[in-house]
Amino acid sequence: MVGGPGFLKPRDDDDDVLPFKIDRTDIVEVSQTTFIYNRNPGLSLEAHRRKLPVSRVKDSLLYLLENHQIVVVVGETGCGKSTQLPQYLMEAGYAATKMIGVTEPRRVAATTLATRVAEEQNCPLGTTVGYSIRFDENFSREATKIKFVTEGILIRELMGDPLLNNYSVLILDEVHERTAQIDIIMGLLKKVIKRRRDLKLVISSATVDAEYIRDFFNRGLEKKKVSPATILSVEGRTYSVDVHYLTSPCPDYVKGCVETVLKIHQREAQGDILVFLTGMDEVDSCVNMLEEYSQKDRGNKHGLKLEVLPMYGALSPNRQLRVFRPAQRGFRKVVVATNIAETSVTIDGIVHVVDSCYVKQAWFNSDTYNDSLIISEVSQASAEQRAGRAGRTAPGKCYRLCREEDFLALPLNTPPELQRTDLCLAILQLKALGIDNVVRFEFPSAPPARNLICAMELLFALGAIDEAGNLTKPLGENMAELPIAPTLSKMLLVSGEMGCSKEIATIVAMLQVENVFAQGRSDKVKVLKRQFEVEEGDFLTLLNVFYSFEKGGMKKNWCNANGLRYKALKRANQLREQLLKTMSRFKVEMVTTRDSDTILKCIVSGLFPNAAYLHPSGEYKSIRGDIPLKVHPTSVLFTEKRPQYLVYNEINHTKHVYMRDVTSIDPVWLEVLAPHFYEKRRRESNIF
User: What domains are defined for the chain?
Assistant: First the structure.
């Protein structure tokens, strides 16, 4: 569908011939709301707030909340919903005795929005305005009136306080993303509001699925002639966004994005550029190519040079915040991002958007019992969200790397996450909240029955639920509290019994950060990485890296000299400390070992569903499902000498199906540690 643009021809200033076909679309213009650095120092914060489109509906919102328990607010991302609505409610007295909670799908959104609102309230972050995200919180239980939280944190709060008695109003932000957690939250809140008539809900969405959400909350109340939910629409001033399409497909959308950026840079006099790609590897590849150009660039004909910045979830918070700063004088900012920049955060100054028209999504494979990360076409609704990133303060342009007829053939909306991903963690959380009959739970969009069955089977195999479908004590209950995959939480919780709790906590923490090794394909980088490699595989290699980091004094210079990313390792150390505290709270014995087999057995106790064997044909296949698999090229085990059996942490789909984070194992461990999941059968190839 998509390809590299040999379409962008340099033109003279008076040349009106455009390289794309154009579809002129009116996009709602909204002012920047979540940036940290105000690009217009002459505009006061109060004046900035009054200019936002959402300020026009303040009175309407308060009126509707007086008469309805639930208000669905529809407006483009950036119109001020996330920052202004909680402040309007606080000013109206809703935070007099209880807090106003605001949920966000991403950690970076929760922290940047909390920072912005604290700035507008002229208070230190953590006092009147605070936030709580996984492994990090900055709020006061006595003083905080507006609290930004991730969706996972709110679910954990529901476990401790099912009626959410600490909140007077909950604002569910960016609901149009339809994450698994927000669907669970909406299903739970439909029950909660029946018991707590004083709890108000404000549900904000940037797309037109508001009627579906309103009808979900009103469903079942038709006979009582009660409508607790209503809709409020936010209209904004309009700046046009020119949408450009390719005239012919191109084979490589990453290179296509690079070429498009360079030609925009040569032709356009002003405006920053935002590029959408699918994942961290593609973002880094694109950034490297653009930086190579920028090092040789003496400036375009307008006197501008490129300042290239990546943006994805695995970046440290400080590096993520760099994209919000204005470009230096004489530079044009180019932000290369995943879909993290599609919603939730608005980057000031973006005029040009380059859309690869692809996205990386998790899809559940019932044969392998895994979510597979698959690169697929973006939906039309998501593409419109991406286009809306341009033209916030002036007319903008969006360059879609596909033909117009291909774009019109794309699906209209992205499927809800609950309908396409692993449901294990969702079921654990629901059962911990007292929802015993998950099948009859009222989801906004019901998940496939096959996915539910697979999740129940896997949780039973992990020992999280018993034959009656109830949470086991204490294992299942503790697994439900941990905000990580059930396979990893099982490893953590049994590590004390198996005698390797500190090692497993270290490995799990290292798995939560991406790429502890410095990027690069040079021989020097490979040699530096090789000094840490362990023949058993990636898990023990990560353990070796962390222990070496500790021995090196956790110094940045040491990391630079050994080809490691200092910030990633510092983050892993913070996560490790949090995990060890949590394990102590769960009374997991703190022990350590030097026996690699003990550690590997513990890994198998949790990751046994993710087992593969070397087929006589020379390729790996999953033991359950016989799915063809390949070891990822970045793995320690990507060698000519390949182990007969291994387990992996996750699967990635590109041209092939790759296993990431793999380690060799003894197949006997599968029989011993998971006899209820595997049975030994004799075949010609002598496999399970």
Answer: 21-27+240-417 (3.40.50.300), 45-233 (3.40.50.300)
Cβ proximity of 110 and 136 under 8 Å: no
Q: With 60 as the cut, is the pLDDT of residue 238 above it?
A: no
Contact 343, 177 (CB under 8 A): yes
User: CB atoms < 10 A from the CB of 640, how many?
Assistant: 4
Contacts of residue 55, defined as CB under 8 A and 6 or more positions apart, other chains included, come to: 49, 80, 84
Once rounded to an integer, what is the mean pLDDT over residues 291-315?
A: 80
CA max distance for the chain: 78
Encode pLDDT of 635-673 as tens digits: 999 887 889 999 999 887 767 788 999 999 999 999 888
The Cα 89–Cα 61 span in angstroms is: 9
Tokens of 35: 């940036």
Pairing of strands 396-403, 370-377: unpaired
* Residue recorded with tokens 């483009």: 76
pLDDT tens string 351-402: 999 999 999 888 887 777 777 778 889 988 888 888 888 877 778 899 999 9
What's the pTM?
Answer: 0.75
CA separation for the pair 112, 95 (Å, rounded)? 21
d(CA 262, CA 455): 47
* Contact present, 625 and 616 (Cβ < 8 Å): no
**Comparing C-alpha atoms, which of 322, 291, 287 is closest to residue 305?**
291
* Cβ pair 606, 490 in contact under 8 A: yes
**Distance of alpha carbon 416 from alpha carbon 379, whole angstroms:** 12
pLDDT at 185 over 50: yes
Token pair of 453 as six digits: 């069955």
Average pLDDT score over residue span 464-490 = 90
Q: Are 334 and 362 in contact (CB under 8 A)?
A: no
**CA atoms of 176 and 174, how far apart (whole Å):** 5
**The pairing of beta strand 396-403 with beta strand 628-631:** unpaired
Determine the distance from the C-alpha atom of residue 185 to the mean position of all C-alpha atoms in its chain, rounded to a whole number: 17
Q: Give the pair of three-digit tokens for residue 407.
A: 């774009």
The DSSP line for 510-542 is HHTSS--BPP--SHHHHHHHHTT--TTBHHHHH
* Cα 138 to the center of its chain, rounded Å: 21
Distances (CA, A) of 359 to 31, 163, 656: 26, 37, 17
Task: Report the SS3 class of residue 336.
Answer: strand
Instruction: Say if residue 684's pLDDT is above 60.
Output: no
Instruction: Please count the residues of the chain.
Output: 688
Mention every residue, 6+ apart, whose C-beta is less than 8 A from residue 627: 365, 367, 368, 621, 657
Rounded CA separation 510/505 (Å): 9
Sheet holding 272-276, edge to edge: 21-28, 238-246, 396-403, 350-355, 272-276, 331-337, 305-311
Specify the DSSP class assigned to residue 14. T
Cβ-defined contacts of 618-626 (< 8 Å, 24+) = 620/646, 620/659, 622/367, 622/368, 623/670, 623/678, 623/687, 623/688, 624/367, 624/368, 624/369, 624/678, 625/365, 625/367, 625/368, 626/367
Beta-sheet strand order (sheet of 99-104): 136-138, 129-133, 146-150, 99-104, 167-172, 200-205, 70-74, 229-233
Residues 6 or more apart whose Cβ sits within 8 Å of residue 296: none
State the pairing for strand pair 620-622/628-631.
antiparallel
Residue 302: per-residue pLDDT: 73
Residues 210, 242 contacting (CB under 8 angstroms): no
What is the C-alpha to C-alpha distance for residues 217 and 186, in angstroms, rounded to an integer?
A: 9
552, pLDDT greater than 80: yes
Q: Where are the alpha helices (DSSP H) in 512-652?
A: 523-530, 538-551, 556-561, 566-585, 596-607
Distance CA 104, CA 215 (A): 22
